[in-house]
Write a structure and sequence with these properties.
The complex is a heterotrimer of chains A (219), B (649) and C (305).
Chain A lengths: L15 H41 L14 H26 L3 H26 L10 H33 L16 H34 L1
Helix pairs in contact in A: 1-4, 1-5, 2-3, 2-5, 3-4, 4-5
Chain B lengths: L13 H6 L6 H5 L2 H23 L3 H4 L5 H19 L3 H7 L25 H29 L10 H21 L2 H13 L7 H20 L16 H4 L2 H30 L12 H32 L13 H35 L6 H14 L18 H10 L1 H15 L8 H24 L1 H7 L3 H30 L6 H27 L14 H32 L31 E2 L15 E2 L6 H7 L3
Antiparallel strand pairs in B: 1-2
Helix pairs in contact in B: 3-5, 5-10, 5-12, 7-8, 7-9, 7-10, 7-22, 8-12, 9-12, 10-12, 12-13, 13-14, 13-15, 14-15, 14-17, 14-18, 14-20, 15-17, 18-20, 18-21, 20-21, 21-22
Chain C lengths: L4 H37 L10 H34 L17 H28 L20 E9 L2 E6 L5 E3 L2 E4 L3 E8 L4 E5 L4 E5 L5 E6 L5 E7 L11 E7 L1 H19 L34
Parallel strand pairs in C: 1-5, 4-10
Antiparallel strand pairs in C: 1-2, 2-3, 5-8, 6-7, 6-9, 9-10
The chains are: A mainly alpha (219), B mainly alpha (649), C alpha+beta (305).
Chain lengths: 219, 649, 305
């Protein structure tokens, strides 16, 4: 880290590569953690719209007939996201014990689940039991679903890049015991990235539960 | 070695293509503004086709209400095509193949052409931003003169009423979009790595992307002018905005692109400032501009997504006929006002904060003294940023929304003048017993304090509900925010450009012309906007083309002053362009005798900013201490680490 | 660089000497400025005192200005002193004295600005509650109401791009002009039929947003002054926003009643056709809302007038 140079006491000159490598790891940490409030604020605006219109209930038209979007599809999206996150976290643990293949398989399942969830979330929009202007709920749900699909899709992209990196470097790190344990800088970089994705995934899983509760249970 | 881990493995890098003898193909494969336009045009056409394919059977579309789906899709996919053409998506696509992340290549020598490409060099991005924002500013400024021309007379009209509202909305939106980036863009990107002693930015591609969002944003917003514009002004109040034509969709997409630009820039800025500071660059030694940037970046990260949501909600109401902003179908027009101002109010502070940070940054150089109460000025920045999230409903005192909350919002709004006042304390303490040098940048800085004083005290009037019942929505408010934003931020930018041109371009602007342009700008600015307070108090609402006959003389005075102001700004810009393109008077190293780390690298700024990672020894404001040793050691050797850990504060 | 005791003494002595002079100049100018604000400009400050709310706005404006003038003068006097005394010359381009802070000065500033700001917030809140909203829009169910037993209710209906007025106490008639009686407490019920407008009766000191589907109530009490007042739309409402204004009159009570009853008879045939008086009016699904939404009601939600 920037101010922490005591550790370089042993070395007479600042090791530049190491210095910027550490900075890059820190930047990955910072960016993945700042992504959390950004995504939270994005969904927060939609949740705000939800609660605002729900409490105003203009003309009794928040959700006059208690209609929701397909509950089965909504639950499936949630379960896919939760399962994907669980697989991802387990895959990460396996990776750190040196089981790179397990990691690749786990991440691949996560990607698959997330892609499925994205597809379902979009498909749900084509099967709405109400026209867009039917009620306040209808509007807010139609606002929520594409954003949710987009964010899940981008998570899938992120997971996919991690998986591909692990596959591509598989044999390179074999001698070191896998990308999860290697002391190589590129492996450290990978793990910082993965760590950020893990933190973000946990956050997003929790938020998916909240979204599900708001749009399919509370409404 | 199974994979090539070296940076040279980058696909699509210019050197790579040249090595393969594909020099002619280079512009097409590396991406630039031209290919970006082609990509954008293809994307636009495809999006329009797609929108028509999807939505032409909708009953509203068939009824002849226009196909907003096609308009939104064409703009969004057009923007995607723009980035494909620019080559910005090459790297994200490479990552799908699992390639290791690499630092983007930097060209050995900066060329003019590079400014039209997707360059990841923070110095190029800074210059791109500088001229991009200048373009925004001049176009929007020209529109302002259009407004003032209409207001020369309450009965004779230059513009048709719809054209007038188009011009007003376009001026407001373009200015507000530009102001968000006018300091973080050019100065933040160019200077922050130099100031914190870093060779690079944390996420150079994100940084480049943040600039390239602003370009399509500009063209899309401008294109609203010949599509009927947007009648609802920059605030876009629903349901008026729901009534609007395609121009309103342009507003939505352009503003949303700017929002994405702000988020991209902010993520890069926070990650860079937190992680890339040179050894010894403690938080207590960090330049105040860097403090301003990180505060503003955090504010943006939390407020801008809400703007994005608001625009998205409006787009859905317009495009697919949801009814979130329409009470008749279960929505509420208050929803937009809340979403918009929840962003809108932090926004006006995140325009003001960088201006203050830049002002305080430059002040000690010309007062020849350390910043007075440095920690207080940092606390002021942070205090304003935090409080800015709790004041948004003061725009809605008259709206009938949550009337019982007004005392609370009155209190928070009044409270925000405490941290704002800190900056006056800092400035007044800094000039005390200094040796002020009245160079052109210093004149602009002093003007900042004169102007912002008017803006600040009239802010207290606006926050007081009984007085706001008089001034809300009138020219008084308009004059208030022109004093706080133009009088403060733009004057700070003028100072900053003048001050940093020697570092960025190695030339010095013409001082005589600079002084003349300063006095014209300063006097004309005050002569334009001070009478507007009176005009507002006497009952002229904003955004009108007809007003009381008794206010004609004041309005004419203001209009004529605004032409003089326009002339002054033109003179300043001519000075800049002329000095850059024709006279090119060399400035020499560090012409202002600044102690800042950014001036130590010399001109031209080396490709990697620093030869070695510098070690920072003290804060850059030690003027007059008699200690002439530099703030940082650019060639640290041996036991420097010990000095760092035990050095003075 | 170590600072000698001599230096410190010089700094203190100078600060004391200059400080007192700045203070004296500031004090004299402030007294003059505040007196001018209160006694010369004050009585003529907008928006006049035709009603209680206008008078409150004027009073608040006066108090704020009287507090702001010393602040402005403080910065100006101090700034002028500094610019005149602390600048470099051609021969002397050295550095200033490296002061990095002064606990006492900073402390006084923090406390002073906090006291000033808290006072202003308290004052504004008191005025707002005491003045029953001071003519501002207070939403559909105001909590700060006037105590007057009899209030004249005027409904302001805004639409692109005109104001009309309904009078529930006069048979629910709708007029295009507005007359008000002297010495009467008036309740304005402001609403809109289409987009957001704002009802700004300048001389009356009344300002309230006209939101579709929302009733926004504002109160004021007229004095014995008679005369004309201007009504303008104060929220951007489309291309003819600038032309959305009309004039009203405050007249004697008897003149008002004769105007109102003549209007009532004159409009009787039209009043019958109007929807019954309500606080808000939802445009019918026949397309009166601008034809934007489909002309059927997706939920079978009946709109009755």
């Amino acid at each position: 880290m920037a101010t922490d140079v005591q550790s370089s006491d042993a070395q007479p000159v600042i090791d530049e590569e190491q210095y910027y490598h550490d900075a890059q790891l820190g930047a990955l940490w910072t960016a993945s953690r700042t992504l959390i409030p950004v995504v939270a604020a994005t969904f927060g605006g939609i949740y705000f719209a939800y609660f605002y219109l729900r409490s105003l209930n203009s003309n009794g038209l928040w959700d006059p007939h208690g209609a929701t979007a397909s509950k089965i599809i909504g639950l499936s999206v949630l379960l896919l996201v939760l399962a994907g996150t669980a697989f991802q976290l387990m895959a990460g643990r396996r990776l750190r014990r040196g089981f790179s293949t397990d990691f690749i398989v786990g991440t691949a399942s996560n990607v698959l689940f997330l892609v499925l969830a994205t597809g379902l979330q979009i498909w749900e929009l084509t099967r709405l039991p109400f026209p867009p202007a039917a009620s306040g709920y209808a509007g807010v749900f139609i606002a929520f679903a594409p954003i949710d699909a987009l964010v899940i899709g981008l998570s899938a992209y992120w997971a996919f890049t991690l998986m591909m990196r692990a596959i591509r470097s598989y044999s390179f790190y074999r001698a070191d015991g896998g990308i999860g344990v290697s002391a190589h800088r590129a492996a450290e970089n990978f793990r910082a990235n993965l760590d950020g994705f893990g933190a973000y995934s946990i956050f997003f899983a929790l938020m998916s539960v909240l979204s599900w509760y708001l749009f399919y249970v509370l409404h | 070695m199974a994979i090539d881990m070296t940076p040279a493995a980058g696909v699509g890098s210019p050197t790579d293509l040249e090595a393969r003898g594909l020099k002619a193909a280079k512009p097409w494969f590396t991406g630039n503004m031209l290919t970006a336009f082609i990509g954008g045009a293809i994307g636009y056409a495809f999006g329009h086709w797609l929108g028509n394919a999807i939505a032409s059977n909708y009953s509203v579309v068939a009824d002849g209400a226009g196909n907003e789906v096609a308009i939104y899709l064409s703009l969004i996919i057009g923007c995607l095509g723009w980035f494909v053409g620019l080559g910005a998506l090459n790297y994200p696509i490479q990552k799908l193949l699992g390639l290791e992340p690499i630092d983007p290549p930097k060209s050995e020598k900066r060329s003019f052409w590079e400014h039209f490409t997707y360059s990841t060099d923070h110095k190029v991005v800074g210059v791109q931003y500088l001229f991009g924002m200048l373009l925004y500013f001049l176009v929007a400024g020209l529109l302002a003169l259009g407004i003032r021309t209409e207001l020369l007379s309450p009965v004779n009209h230059i513009w048709a009423p719809d054209t007038y509202i188009e011009i007003v909305g376009e001026h407001g939106t373009m200015m507000m979009m530009m102001m968000t980036s006018v300091i973080m863009g050019p100065f933040g990107n160019y200077l922050i790595p130099l100031m914190i002693g870093s060779k690079k930015m944390a996420f150079p591609r994100l940084e480049a992307t943040s600039f390239w969002f602003t370009v399509p944003s500009f063209f899309i917003l401008l294109s609203a002018l010949w599509q009927g514009g947007f009648q609802s002004g920059w605030t876009g109040y629903a349901p008026l905005s729901i009534q609007g034509g395609p121009g309103q969709s342009d507003y939505d997409v352009a503003f949303a692109l700017m929002a994405l630009s702000m988020v991209a820039a902010s993520i890069n800025m926070t990650a860079t400032i937190i992680n890339y500071r040179a050894p010894g660059m403690r938080w207590s030694r960090m330049p105040i501009l860097a403090w301003g940037m990180i505060t503003v970046a955090f504010t943006m990260l939390l407020s801008v997504p809400v703007l994005f949501d608001g625009l998205y909600v409006m787009s859905l109401d317009r495009g697919v006929r949801t009814a979130m902003l329409y009470a008749g179908h279960g929505g509420s027009s208050f929803l937009w006002e809340n979403l918009f101002w929840f962003f809108g109010h932090p926004e006006v502070y995140l325009l003001a904060l960088p201006g203050f940070a830049l002002t305080v940054e430059l002040l000690p150089v010309f007062a020849r003294k350390p910043i007075f109460a440095l920690k207080t000025s940092t606390a002021g920045l942070i205090g304003v940023a935090v409080l800015s999230f709790f004041v948004w409903q003061h725009h809605l005192f008259m709206s009938g929304m949550n009337p019982d909350m007004r005392p609370l919002f009155m209190l928070t709004t009044e409270l925000i003048s405490i941290p704002t006042g800190f900056l006056y304390l800092v400035a007044m303490g800094t000039v005390w017993r200094g040796k002020i040098r009245f160079e052109v940048p210093m004149l602009f800085l002093l003007a900042v304090f004169w102007n912002f004083l008017w803006g600040g005290v009239t802010g207290v009037y606006n926050s007081d509900v009984p007085v706001d019942a008089l001034v809300h929505g009138s020219f008084f408010v308009m004059a208030h925010f022109h004093f706080t934003i133009m009088g403060q931020l733009i004057f700070a930018v003028f100072a900053g450009v003048y001050y940093y041109v020697p570092l960025i371009f190695g030339i010095r602007l013409n001082d005589k012309l600079g002084k003349i342009s300063f006095w014209i700008i300063f006097v004309a600015f005050n002569s334009t906007f001070l009478p507007l307070f009176m005009i507002g108090l006497l009952g002229q609402p904003r955004r009108v083309f007809e007003y009381a006959l008794r206010l004609q003389h004041l309005n004419q005075w203001v209009s004529v002053s605004s032409y003089v102001l326009g002339f002054g700004i033109l003179l300043y810009v001519i000075n800049l362009i002329w000095s850059l393109a024709v006279t090119r008077t060399p400035a020499g190293p560090n012409p202002w005798e600044s102690r800042g780390l950014e001036w130590q690298v010399g001109y031209p700024v080396p490709r990697d900013n620093f030869e070695k990672v510098p070690v920072v020894l003290r804060d850059p404001y030690g003027y007059g201490t008699g200690d002439d040793t530099p703030v940082a050691d650019l060639n640290p050797v041996g036991d420097m680490a010990a000095v760092v850990t035990g050095g003075d504060a | 660089m170590a600072v000698t005791q001599e230096d410190m003494n010089e700094r203190k002595a100078y600060a004391k000497k200059a400080g007192w002079r700045i203070f004296a100049i500031w004090l004299v100018l402030s007294l003059i400025g505040v007196a001018l604000v209160l006694y010369v400009w004050g009585p003529h400050m907008p928006p006049g005192d035709m009603t209680t709310s206008a008078a409150s706005q004027q009073f608040d404006f006066k108090v704020l200005t009287a507090m702001v003038v010393p602040v402005l003068l403080m910065v100006w006097v101090y700034g002028a002193w500094s610019l005149i005394n602390f600048h470099a010359t051609k021969d002397d381009r050295g550095d200033g004295i490296p002061l990095r802070g002064n606990r006492k000065v900073q402390g006084i500033w923090y406390v002073g600005s906090a006291v000033l700001v808290l006072f202003l917030a308290g004052f504004g809140t008191y005025e707002l509650i005491n003045g029953n909203g001071v003519g501002s829009g207070e939403g559909p169910s105001p909590i700060w109401k006037p105590t007057a037993k009899h209030m004249l209710v005027v409904q302001v209906i805004a639409q692109q791009w005109r104001f009309t007025y309904r009078w529930p106490q006069f048979g629910g008639m709708e007029t295009t002009s507005i007359d008000l009686p002297t010495d009467t407490t008036i309740q304005f019920d402001v609403t809109s039929l289409d987009v957001i407008h704002d009802f700004w009766a300048y001389q009356l000191g009344v300002k309230a947003d006209a939101n579709p589907d929302v009733n926004n109530v504002a109160y004021t009490t007229t004095s014995n002054q008679q005369g004309r007042f201007t009504v303008r739309c104060d929220e951007l409402c489309g291309i003819w926003h600038g032309a959305m204004y009309n004039y009203g009159h405050v007249v004697s009570k008897s003149a008002f009643y004769s105007w109102a009853s003549s209007m009532e008879t004159q409009n009787a045939s039209v009043t019958k056709l109007l929807p019954p008086f309500a606080t808000t009016y939802t445009p019918s699904y026949s397309g009166a809302g601008g034809g934007y939404y489909p002309s059927y009601d997706p939920n079978g939600h009946a709109v009755t007038y």
